[in-house]
Amino acid sequence: MTALISDSPAVQSPATAGPGRTQRRRPRAGRAVLLLLFAAYFFIPLYAAVDFTLGGSRRNMGHTLSVWTGLVHQEGFTTNLMTSLKIAGGTVLLLLVLMVPTMAWLHLRLPHLRRVVEGVCLLPMAIPAVVIANGILGAFKSWPQAITGSSWILILEYVILALPFTYRSLDAGLSAIPLTTMVEAARSLGASWPTTLWRVVVPNIRTSVASAGILGAALALGEFTIANLLLLNTFPIWTDQAGQQDGEVATTASMLILFLSWLLLMLVSQLGRGRAGKKSPKLRRNK
Amino acid sequence: MSAPSVELVKLSRSFGGVAALDGLDLTVEPGTLTCLLGPSGCGKTTALRIIAGLEHSDGGEVRVAGQDVARIPANKRDMGMVFQSYSLFPNLDARDNVAFGLRMRGWNAAKRRERAGELLELVGLSAHTDKYTHQMSGGQQQRVALARALAIEPRVLLLDEPLSALDAVVRVQLREEIRSLQTRLGITTVFVTHDQEEALSVSDQVAVMRAGRLEQCAAPAEVYAGPATAFVAEFIGTMNRLPGTLSADGQTVEVAGRRLVVRQGGTEAGPRSGGEVTVLIRPEAVRLEPAEDGTATVRQAGFRGPITRITAVLPDGTEVLSDVPSASAAELVPGRAAALVLDDAPVMVA
Prior knowledge:
The structure holds two protein chains of two kinds. Chain A is mainly alpha-helical. Chain A has 14 helices and no strands. Chain B is elongated, with a radius of gyration of 24 Å. By secondary structure, chain B is of the alpha+beta class. Helices cover 24% and strands 36% of the residues of chain B. Chains A and B meet through α8, α9 and α14 of A and β6, α2 and α4 of B.
């Protein structure tokens, strides 16, 4: 049976379609120009950097992957990269273990304190890195030297630094689901608090948790100031030092860490989307 | 396992100094369905949540099969609960939602799957086992929620306004299904609602609440026909409020030119004597007969199938509602004078 009323654009009369199309074209053109400007601003430096690492600046030699392939043979490259990856992993783990239950509890039981906690979590954005670095050293001075005197201390530093992003991300996720009734339903069905958190809350804020994790990891992989202040060797510190001797190596290392972060981002977002898509397309859209 | 009884003994709970429950006493017999009925804020949902263990009480006891369950956490109480807002887990399909409670009880995957399938079949959703919440209608989601609550074979089934979010047709259909399931499974059930029609149609007993207290708890017909208080009388069904004069001994009341007997315990604040009162009379106890010298004037006639509800006005401006058989309502057109005739049945005064 043919529908009597159609909302398809195909049934628009030429008289009404004409002006509408013109009106639509203007903002579309504006958007395209903006997008183009943004893309140029974003990609030209990246292109220049990659071109530089491929020897593009030395026109007579052509392009080569030699700097990229030789990167792993650079002294300190692997060690410092592994250190940064370990710190990033530890940061993400500690951040989520601390913040997911805290945020869920805050939403469930202490909603009136959300603004206060948000304010506290935003503080690291306003406090200078040197204050945070020394504050954490002071706060954890009674801890074993193996932690406070090594690069592991950076995990504690970066957890604090990542709080603003983590708060925002988890807060958005938890606000988008009917948390209270879901938790009460799980409890009435026999789930303990940890089980409720793991099997009901986390799966339904999966995208938010992934975002918080990615932001934490990206921060830990690229942070320079605090590591430098604490005289610790991480990948960004190594990159900076390498840059003083060889600009191509430093740029290549920077590009590598950027691509690694992107890869991680894509991987986690694909994983989240894949599982969410298989399980619940609507849930994915809501996040 | 036989169904247990549920007893609430002097249950109290306050929120910020306001008493939501004020010494509530209630007994739900094993295998029966009791509706907690009352206006918004009367404490019915608070009582249900305390039974479920989702809320704590400030005083009193909740006894299930005679045992005080106050110290048992919600996840150990073995109570199935259905919420107003469905509360299905969006990351799980219908089958996994139903199987969730079984998983918490350590059932293996095959048994869970089988049992969830059985329950979904019980609620008529065997063709929807793989659907997610967003792929189901409100009625289907609430059926899944019901199956999920029943899957764990709860000692008590708690329903917190389960039909409020559904449209009228589905609501009637689902409430009949709930009643049918409850009767078949013989499960002790507490059903919270603010819809009197819902409460009267599905319950073994209706507990009418007001300001955290129980006004009356009795079978639906008894609550309707013999309300214990003026509040119950007015809350359940429709009630006319006519001005009357109470006799000195408080036994009779004069209303619309007739002297009627006051029902035993039918005064709001205990026995009273003399003075102006409001007489509560149901529309079906009021007859309007076309008469040129009648004191009432018909203002409106609303056809309701077998009966027609007539709205008439007395000389003092009081509105009177009367349910008359539609077959004899043809003459009661707006503007027509009519005589007001009251049944002899004892009345309540407020």
